Amino acid sequence: NEFHPFQEATIGVSFLSKTVICIDTNKAIKLKIWDTAGQERYQSLTPLYFRGAGAAILVYDICRRHS
What we know:
With 67 residues, the chain is mainly beta. It is built from one helix and two strands.
């Protein structure tokens, strides 16, 4: 729950798994979060990461147009 302004950029892909409880159904949902690199040199790998995904979350810096 913290923002680190000097966080190193992701190289390739980084994985995180987290289980949360749905408040409507009280069932556990396992989230598999893939932090993919945004650099242009990794764009050819992007389709491999997103194949079969049920959702996507885009994160960018609104103060830096090129992000």
